[in-house]
Amino acid sequence: MVALNLPVFDCKIKQVEGKPYIFDSLRRKYVRLSPEEWVRQHIVNLLLTHYGYPKALIRTEGGLVLNQTQKRTDVVVFDRQGQPFLVVECKAPHIPLTQSVFDQIARYNHVHKAPFVVISNGLTHYCCGIDHTTADIRFLDDFPAFI
Asked: Which stretches of the chain drop beneath a pLDDT of 70?
């Protein structure tokens, strides 16, 4: 896999029928290693090890219903009251972070109503704070601290 603009970590990778799988510590199982999964596992590691987000409050590949269609959010972090705090959309490193990616996470967050969103392709990351009462969006210099 390609080197990312995220901290390297000691991940467990194995081959199953000639295909790579990576161990997902949140789901406690090996999952198919795609370029997007590579980014997702690095983001989860970053949230856990560098920002101290509680493992029990992070969910990967969670479902949501949007316009009567089933969708999946890459990563959702919940606050201590169980409300969405941060929604992360991961793309493969070769996928540019265009307006359509911002639109995608905005649609997902219309359901979650988290105060923070992140999009990342592992090379570039955009973090935003959102005020849902005024619809103001501000770009942040870093991932939000977990409170």
From this structure: 63-68
